[in-house]
């Protein structure tokens, strides 16, 4: 997971991108809270989507002062507004650079009041990207004998905090909440991580291809995010499949790549990891070139090789506070449940994926 991996690993492990804010792991954090209401004409009802997370949901764009207006949760709010013919408030309580335990303790738990409001209908969260990014950075800096424990520690921390977050949301979200969703990790820097390590494997005495070690680790984290979701009444947005798989059948197995890569409810960890790291590995593509056809692709990752691309401008979010405002929806209706740009930008794709779980009524 190098610079491009860093993308995902930041995206995956959202927020290492915030290194500009500090130096030590826990110091590299920046609160980026936003409340943006989709104001629909001739409506009186207003409902809330609450999103907790790191730089991914924050809409981080390299700035300590602003963020994307339409990060994934706010994109989903637009879909909900059209579906329910209502105003939808997108509340993003995020901390760029935060590891999973920080998101859990200082956002989900400490700011539970946002999901307890009676207007809440959707609660979603993402985490673990920065745990992975930090593990990747640590591994890349190793010399001598490779120490893989940094990866297993990141995996363990992710599992513990994802499960705790779901349990806490189940116990504290407003009783009328219609949907609870977790979003897993994509792999930024997939191509960049094809480089060799500086350290050497203790068994072979040879250097290793970093992607060969990082991919199974990401796969295990993603598996447990989706598996815990199945066990605990959440839905799982499989960002890995949506970002890393093409929208056509590149290997002629009869299934579109992005569909074939998705977590299958009830499958075993070993089955999922084998599918991602071996059986379908040839179909994985760096999200810098997300193929919507065999001849056309779009860039889902910003120039930092970590965070999702976006469109629609920015809002104040960072060192000088966050935005609380409203605006009309960019789209008043959707053909087949998709906007015209649903697969052109990383945040638009993630927001659409969130919307596929929207309840028919509020």
Can I get a quick summary?
The chain has helices spanning 5-11, 55-58, 72-84, 100-109, 113-116, 129-140, 149-172, 210-232, 239-244, 257-260, 269-279, 346-355; strands at residues 30-31, 34-38, 46-53, 66-68, 87-96, 120-125, 179-183, 196-200, 207-209, 235-237, 290-291, 297-298, 314-318, 321-322, 324-327. By secondary structure, the protein is an alpha/beta fold.
Please write the string of helix (H) and strand (E) elements: HEEEHEHEHHEHHEEEHEHHHEEEEEH
Tell me the domain tally.
Answer: 1
Text of the CATH class: Alpha Beta
CATH superfamily: SGNH hydrolase
The biggest sheet, with number of strands, parallel, antiparallel or mixed sense and barrel status, is:
8 strands, mixed
- The CATH topology turns out to be Rossmann fold
The CATH architecture comes to: 3-Layer(aba) Sandwich
Alpha-carbon Rg, integer: 19 Å
Low-confidence region ranges: 1-27
Strand portion, in percent?
A: 15-25%
Question: End-to-end span in angstroms?
Answer: 41 Å
Query: In total, how many beta strands?
Result: 15
The mean pLDDT is 93
Provide the structure class. Answer: alpha/beta
Number of helices: 12
């Amino acid at each position: 997971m190098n610079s491009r991996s860093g993308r995902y690993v930041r995206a995956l492990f959202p927020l290492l991108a915030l290194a500009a804010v500090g130096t030590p792991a826990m110091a590299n954090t920046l609160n980026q809270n936003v409340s943006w209401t989709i104001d629909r004409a001739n409506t009186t009802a207003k409902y809330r989507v609450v999103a907790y997370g790191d730089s991914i949901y924050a809409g981080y764009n390299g700035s300590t002062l602003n963020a994307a207006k339409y990060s994934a949760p706010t994109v989903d709010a637009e879909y909900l507004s059209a579906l329910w013919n209502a105003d939808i408030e997108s509340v993003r309580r995020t901390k760029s650079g935060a590891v999973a335990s920080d998101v859990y303790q200082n956002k989900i738990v400490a700011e539970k009041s946002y999901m307890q409001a009676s207007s809440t209908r959707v609660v979603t969260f993402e985490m673990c990207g920065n745990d992975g990014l930090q593990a990747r950075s640590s591994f890349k800096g190793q010399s001598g004998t490779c120490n893989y424990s940094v990866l297993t520690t990141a995996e363990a921390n992710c599992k513990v905090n994802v499960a705790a977050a779901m349990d806490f949301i189940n116990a504290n979200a407003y009783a009328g909440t219609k949907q609870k969703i977790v979003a897993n990790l994509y792999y930024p820097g997939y191509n960049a991580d094809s480089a060799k390590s500086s350290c050497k494997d203790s068994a072979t005495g040879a250097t290793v291809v970093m992607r060969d070690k990082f991919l199974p680790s990401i796969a295990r984290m993603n598996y447990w995010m989706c598996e815990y979701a199945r066990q605990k009444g959440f839905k799982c947005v499989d960002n890995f499949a949506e970002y890393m798989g093409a929208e056509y059948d590149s290997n002629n197995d009869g299934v579109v790549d992005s569909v074939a890569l998705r977590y299958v409810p009830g499958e075993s960890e070993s089955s999922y990891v084998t599918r991602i790291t071996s059986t379908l590995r040839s179909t994985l593509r760096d999200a810098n070139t997300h193929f919507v056809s065999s001849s056309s692709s779009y860039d889902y990752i910003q120039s930092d090789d970590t965070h999702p691309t976006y469109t629609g401008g920015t809002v104040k979010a960072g060192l000088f506070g966050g935005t609380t405002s409203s605006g009309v929806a960019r789209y008043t209706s959707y053909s087949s449940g998709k906007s015209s740009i649903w697969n052109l930008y990383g945040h638009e794709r993630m927001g659409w994926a969130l919307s596929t779980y929207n309840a028919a009524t509020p």
